[in-house]
């Protein structure tokens, strides 16, 4: 080993929806970093071997999400790979994905304000982990009943927020039918002491006028189509009548053939 090599500092875990990135400083010059992930019960995993980067995606090395991990960031030279001496390394803080990953933004799929009800349907954020069939696990698949969602909503142009909590993918809340409302959703993990609140979704706002028009749009189209057909028929009839009148007038003007 080479004790004179600098070791990593400012080591941080960054994890959203269980996608976990390890970051540190400084940028290496004349040496490399190799990351070792140590779990309590799992075998040590080496990641980002001999990298010149100062970050490493360790998602697949912390797959057992309820386990607590530490990272050793080794400072190595290329010639040291066969050296049996342990290279200098720095040790990260402990990290437990289940307790520390941040729940990302929920995706709002549908919303409608009809009368005095606001309905919102949303989708769970997905994780990088997959089921055996290849489809991605959502955060709800992992957190189960530890996860709930909160809808914050308020009258447009107002600051007074209300909120509702749900464990399903839908919200239905009572609103004033004459006002537009704005809202967002975020995941919450009430059992946590830290990182309880997830990232906020996009803020969306209803438009009562526009939604009313949407409801009646098909009826409006039918009425317009019927009116157009009636007008077209009226024009066709007028043209036919005009032609008949002209033909009649022409016949009347023609001199009668005398025997």
Automatic annotation (TrEMBL):
Transmembrane segment boundaries: 220-241
Gene Ontology MF term list: cytokine receptor activity
Keyword Isomerase set for record: no
Membrane topology qualifier: Single-pass type I membrane protein
UniProt record, GO biological process: blood coagulation
Cellular component GO terms, alphabetical: plasma membrane
Subcellular localization, as worded in the UniProt entry: Membrane
Domain Interferon/interleukin receptor: 101-207
Record carries keyword Endoplasmic reticulum: no
Residue stretches making up the Fibronectin type-III domain: 3-79
Keywords from the named record: Blood coagulation, Disulfide bond, Glycoprotein, Hemostasis, Lipoprotein, Membrane, Palmitate, Signal, Transmembrane, Transmembrane helix
InterPro entries linked to this entry: FN3_dom (IPR003961), FN3_sf (IPR036116), Ig-like_fold (IPR013783), Interferon/interleukin_rcp_dom (IPR015373), Tissue_factor (IPR001187), Type-II_Cytokine-TF_Rcpt (IPR050650)
Domain of life where this protein originates: Eukaryota
Pfam families: Interfer-bind, Tissue_fac
Family: Belongs to the tissue factor family.
Subunit-structure text: Interacts with HSPE; the interaction, inhibited by heparin, promotes the generation of activated factor X and activates coagulation in the presence of activated factor VII.
Function as written in the Swiss-Prot or TrEMBL entry: Initiates blood coagulation by forming a complex with circulating factor VII or VIIa. The [TF:VIIa] complex activates factors IX or X by specific limited proteolysis. TF plays a role in normal hemostasis by initiating the cell-surface assembly and propagation of the coagulation protease cascade.
Protein name per Swiss-Prot or TrEMBL: Tissue factor
């Amino acid at each position: 080993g080479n004790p004179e090599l600098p070791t990593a500092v400012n080591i941080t875990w960054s994890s959203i929806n269980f996608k976990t990135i390890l970051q540190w400083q400084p940028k290496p010059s004349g040496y490399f970093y190799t990351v070792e992930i140590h779990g309590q019960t799992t075998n040590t995993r080496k990641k980002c071997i001999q990298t010149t980067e100062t970050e490493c995606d360790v998602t697949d090395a912390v797959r057992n999400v309820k386990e607590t991990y530490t990272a050793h960031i080794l400072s190595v030279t290329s010639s040291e790979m066969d050296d049996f001496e342990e290279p200098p390394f720095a040790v990260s803080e402990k990290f437990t994905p289940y307790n520390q990953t941040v729940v990302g933004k929920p995706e709002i799929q549908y919303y409608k304000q009809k009368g005095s009800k606001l309905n919102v349907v949303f989708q769970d954020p997905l994780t990088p982990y997959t089921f055996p069939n290849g489809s991605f696990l959502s955060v709800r698949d992992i957190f189960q009943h530890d996860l709930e969602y909160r809808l914050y909503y308020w009258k447009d142009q107002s600051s007074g927020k209300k909120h509702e909590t749900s464990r399903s993918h839908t919200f239905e809340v009572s609103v004033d039918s004459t006002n537009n409302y704005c809202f967002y959703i975020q995941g919450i993990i009430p059992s946590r002491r830290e990182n309880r609140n997830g990232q906020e979704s996009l803020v969306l706002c209803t438009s009562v006028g526009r939604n009313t028009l949407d409801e009646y749009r098909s009826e409006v189209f039918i009425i317009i189509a019927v009116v157009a057909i009636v007008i077209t028929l009226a024009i066709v009839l007028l043209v036919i009548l005009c032609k008949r009148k002209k033909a009649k007038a022409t016949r009347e003007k023609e001199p009668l053939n005398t025997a």
